[in-house]
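The instructor's notes for this session suggest beginning with a concrete chain rather than abstract definitions. Hand out the sequence below and ask the class to guess, before any prediction is shown, which regions might be ordered.
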Amino acid sequence: MASGLRILIASPLGRVISAPLENAFDNVTVSVATSDVELTSLISGSVRYDVVSADLIWNRPETEWTFDGLDVIDRLRQVERPAPVLLATQGHSMERDHLDEARLRPEVFGVIPKADGLHAIMDALRTVALGKRLALPALEQPSRPPLYELLADRRGQTAGRLAGAIAAGRASDNASLAAVAKVSPSTANKVTSHYLGPMMLARGEHDEALSLTQGSIYRWCGLHARYLTSWCRRHGHSDVL
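After discussion, reveal the predicted structure:
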C-alpha cells in the first residue's frame, strides 16, 4: 500500500478491529470514532483520510436512532474533508432504506457485510484506499423508487416532515400532526391522499385490495421509522422529532 495511509473507522466497535488493521497494513495510521463527538474531533482538523469505514446502522441502543453511517458521510462533507467511504452492514431489513440512499451518494465506494469477516473488510479497505469502487449489492426490489429520491423535491420535503413526526411518535391524528410538523390543518389532512399515500403506492407497499387509510399511513411510517428519523435529522427537520 501507499505510504502514510490513513484509515478512519467510525463504529462503536471500531477499536476491536483497529489493532488487526495496523498489523495488516504497512505504514498506516488507524483512527477510531465510536461516537458523533469523537468523529467530529477527528475530522475537524487538517487530517485527510484515504478511506473511511463506517457502520451503516450503529449497533448501540443510545445511538441507533440518533446517528448512522449516512451522518458520517454528511459530517465529512460539512467539514470539507471528502474521502471514499466503505459502509459496513449488519444484514438487517432495517438497513434497506439507508442502503437505497447510499447507492445514490457519490462518496460511497462500497458496501461490505460484517458477516463476511475481518479479512474481507481488510481487502475492501485496500481496494477503496486505492480509489477503486466495489460492486454494490443488487437491489432486492429494483423497480421501487428510493425514499431518498421521493423526499427530494418540495412536496417530498413536506412529506418527510409529516412522516418524521409520525415515526417519532409525536402525532396521533391530523390535528397533532399539523401542530408538530408546523403545517396547516389542510396539509395534514392530505397526508393520505397527497403526501405519503402516493409514496406507498409508488413503492408497492400497500395492498391495492384494501382502502388506504390514516392507519395504513401510520403503520408505514413505523416500518420505515429509522430511516425517516435519520432523513429528518440530516435535512434540517430535527424539530419534528
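Then share the key points. The chain has a mean pLDDT of 93. Residues 12 and 34 are 4 Å apart (CA to CA).
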